[in-house]
Structure formats: C-alpha cells, structure tokens
Design brief:
Layout lengths: L1 E6 L5 E6 L9 E5 L9 E4 L4 E4 L12 E6 L6 E2 L8 E2 L8 E3 L6 E10 L6 E7 L10 E2 L7 E2 L4 E4 L3 E2 L9 E8 L8 E9 L1
Antiparallel strand pairs: 1-2, 2-3, 4-5, 6-17, 7-17, 8-16, 9-16, 10-14, 10-15, 10-17, 11-12, 11-13, 11-16
Length: 198
C-alpha cells in the first residue's frame, strides 16, 4: 500500500492511499493531515487512520549536572569567623551536611565566591561519608586526593572538574564542606558556595 499526501488548492492537507499504483480513480481520502505535517514528526496510525505526532526519543545528555548549594543567601555572606588552622566543618558547624545520590555521576567540582580573603593556605574542600555523623574524621575527600579552593584572595574560585572517588559514586552519600588552614584570627567569607556533579 502506498501513502500519498496531497494539499488541496484551499490549503487543506489530506492523506490518500492506493492499492493499485498511481491510478487517480483508486485513491480514497483517509482524513486530514496536520498543516504542519512533517515526516520527521508525524507517523501514520493504522488504528485511528490518521497521523499522530511522533516524539523521537531524546538523546542522552552527557553533561547532566547536580547542583548542591551550601550557601545561596543573596543578602548575606557566610563568614568563617576566626577560621582555625585545623580541619573543621564549614563555619565550624555540622548543619551543612547534605544527602545525595551520586550513583550516576563521575566528576565533581567546588565553586566559591570569596568575598573576604583569609590568610595564605586557608581553603575549603568537599568531603563525603557513607553514613551520617558529625565527626569530621569519618569524612573522606570526594576525589582520590584532596581538591580545594583557596580563600586567600577575593574572587570566584573553582577546583576544576575532578574524578569522584569510587566509593563516593553511590546513593545515600553524605556530603559537606571542610575548612582548614586559617590562623584563628582572620575571618574569610564566601557568597555562593556550590558543589557540582556531572
């Protein structure tokens, strides 16, 4: 069977079929076709005897990203008061622990908008744990090695993309930010602070 699409002088579009070749006498109209008919977006439906819109499957998105914000306040920066030299949770508080599903991601990066500089060597690093807890010793670097952003100068800083540690690539992973390298006096501050996964 041959399907043929015809447009009349009035602009109406119809589909006709023939079983005996291109004999005009054998053509029978099967129904109106959308004015925007396109073989790439419409498919003939033998049940309804009409065209249905066809939605081709979406291609996979290779750079689908997960955004995990740790500070998003538009009106106030997060001040890391008298930041210590030793490792601490962000702002010396465990309230910034987040639960994520990282099973389908392979890379991560940390970005920070530093609004008040700390001393040389002060930095922030993303860490994770397999179970929830408030003991920083049970949190591990998100990458195979420590990846950190410097707080030594004002600006927008990033770790760049790095490979996730294999044990971090699973559901129910607890992520947070570790701070360290201060002098116990200076109080660096950040605006936006975001962990990205892709």
């Amino acid at each position: 069977m041959t399907m043929i699409v015809l447009r009349s002088a009035s602009g109406k579009v119809n589909v006709v079929e023939t079983t005996t070749g291109y004999d005009m006498a054998q053509w029978t109209s099967q129904g109106e076709v959308p004015a925007d008919y396109n073989p790439a977006t419409h498919r003939w439906n033998d049940v309804t005897r009409s065209f249905d819109i066809y939605y081709p499957p979406m291609p996979p998105t290779p750079w689908r990203q997960l955004c995990v914000p740790f500070n998003v306040g538009a009106g106030a920066d997060l001040s890391l008061l008298a930041m210590a030299s030793s490792a601490q949770f962000l702002a010396n508080s465990s309230r910034n622990i987040e639960l994520i599903d990282a099973a389908s991601y392979t890379e991560a990066r940390l970005t920070a908008r530093v609004t008040a500089a700390g001393v040389a060597g002060s930095k922030l690093s993303p860490v994770f744990a397999i179970g929830f807890g408030t003991n920083l010793a049970n949190y591990f670097d998100l990458g195979d090695a420590e990846m950190s952003v410097s707080l030594a100068a004002v600006g927008l800083v990033s770790t760049g993309w790095f490979a996730l540690r294999t044990s971090a690539r699973a559901d129910n992973r607890y992520v947070t930010i570790k701070q360290q390298g201060g002098n116990g006096v200076a109080s660096p501050a950040v605006g936006r602070l975001t962990l990205w996964l892709r």
